[in-house]
Design goal:
Helix content is 62%, strand content 8%. With 428 residues, it is of the alpha/beta class. The chain has an eight-stranded mixed sheet, sandwiched between helices. Helix 12 links the parallel strand 5 (348-354) and strand 6. Helix 4 (136-146) packs antiparallel against helix 5 (157-169) and helix 7 (197-211) packs antiparallel against helix 14.
């Protein structure tokens, strides 16, 4: 019984051993097939001849461990070849993109060359139309009533009221506005006008007639034995010092020898500000410490200008309120002191007015003219004001020449006052 049991167990073990050997052979055959496939793949990617496969096969060890190492090595080589192919493909795409970018840049350069002349023309047009653009706010106020004039309406009291509102809003003042409206009424009756559009041309003509007597440019020329003296006056913040800087660049560029006098010894940093303008334009500045007597500064400056054969002496003064009697008396003192050198100075007294103050400018002209003889006006900040119509009120009431108007921060934005350009800019 025991022998039979052990015999059966022996047969079973033999059968299992045979099955295990059969499975091992099957696995070995399968590995060899995989190895052959990898070798063929490597040969196709590397471009090696077919006989190279046999050379590699002969050198392969027969043990399972070595076979596994060979398979891993082949896989690594295949991965490396695949990565190299990807890099080659990416380099090719990169070169193509660079070529396309180069072509686009070349086309853009040629387009820029074509556009440059047109850009220059646009810049010229902008410069030419800048006066029109800078008076935009005042023009908008006038257009409120003038819009009714271009819609083919009939002349009526309602139309005159709209126009009156527009003129008052633009700060022409009550007196000037009433005068303009009355003239329009009279001309409409005389010419038997009925179409409201015809009033627009009449209004332009009336406004130009108001300004024309004041459109007298400032002519600067050296006197016999002394410079042409310009005295700058005005309230605080009107823009006196900035206007001096712009005038300095204007006269310096025209070939005149300019000197500045820092007569504003009251305001902090006023002397330094004028010196900065002098350094920018490369002109001398006569100054004394803050708190010095303004009249003595201008007296010294005039003597220095005569000694250095200067063509133009521009004198700054401290800003002062027109309703402060003591400050106005100090202004009178300045004029008295410099006239000890020459009784004909100053040659020009320029009152600088901030156009944003509107009708307050009328009060300034009146009171400053009582202290010293104002011979010219400078209207600053017209580009930021909706009250540019005040120039009509000033011209109508005082008949003082408007020398310059400021429509920007740059030196070239200080323009000689031109009636036609100013009026047309308000309407068109």
């Amino acid at each position: 019984m025991a022998k039979g049991f052990f015999g059966l167990f022996s047969k079973k073990n033999k059968t299992q051993t045979q099955q295990q050997q059969s499975e091992d052979q099957s696995n070995l055959l399968e590995k060899k097939q995989q190895e052959t496939v990898l070798k063929e793949s490597e040969t196709e990617q590397s471009g090696l001849p077919d006989n190279h496969i046999s050379v590699i096969a002969e050198s392969v060890p027969t043990s399972e461990a070595d076979e596994n190492g060979i398979i891993d090595s082949k896989r690594d080589k295949a991965d490396v070849l695949s990565q190299e192919n990807e890099k080659t493909s990416k380099n090719s795409e990169s070169n193509t993109a660079l070529e396309a970018t180069s072509e686009i840049a070349s086309e853009a350069t040629s387009v820029d060359k074509k556009i440059l002349p047109e850009a220059d023309k646009t810049k010229e047009n902008t410069t030419r139309l800048s006066f029109f653009e800078r008076l935009k706010k005042t023009r908008q106020n006038l257009s409120y009533g003038l819009s009714a004039l271009i819609k083919g309406k009939q002349i009526s009291e309602e139309l005159y009221e709209d126009l009156e509102t527009a003129l008052l809003t633009a700060d022409l003042g009550v007196e000037t506005t009433n005068q303009v409206i009355e003239q329009l009424r009279e001309e409409s009756k005389l010419r038997e006008l009925h179409d409201a559009g015809a009033l627009k041309d009449n209004l332009k003509k009336i406004l130009k007639n108001i300004l024309t007597p004041c459109a007298i440019p400032l002519t600067v020329s050296k006197q016999d034995n002394r410079p042409y003296v310009i005295l700058m006056i005005g309230v605080n913040g009107a823009g006196k010092t900035t206007t001096i800087g712009k005038l300095t660049e204007k006269y310096k560029s025209s070939g005149l020898k300019v000197m500045l006098a820092a007569g504003d010894t009251f305001r902090a940093a006023a002397v330094e500000q004028l010196k900065a303008w002098g350094a920018k334009s490369d002109v001398p500045v006569i100054a004394q410490p803050t708190g010095s007597d303004s009249a003595s500064v201008l007296y010294d400056a005039l003597n220095s200008a005569k000694a250095h054969d200067t063509d133009v002496l521009i004198c700054d003064t401290a800003g002062r309120l027109q309703n402060k009697d003591n400050l106005m008396e100090e202004l009178k003192k300045i004029v008295r002191v410099i006239r000890k050198i020459d009784e004909n100075v100053p040659d020009e007294v320029l009152l600088v007015l901030d156009s944003t103050t509107g009708q307050n400018a009328v009060s300034q002209v009146k009171l400053f003219s009582e202290a010293v003889k104002v011979t010219g006006l400078v209207l600053t900040k017209l580009d930021g004001s909706a009250k540019g119509g005040v120039v009509f009120a000033l011209a109508n009431q005082f008949k003082i020449p408007v020398r310059f108007v400021g429509i920007g921060e740059k030196a070239e934005d200080l323009r000689t006052f031109e009636v036609d350009a100013f009026v047309e800019a308000l309407f068109d």
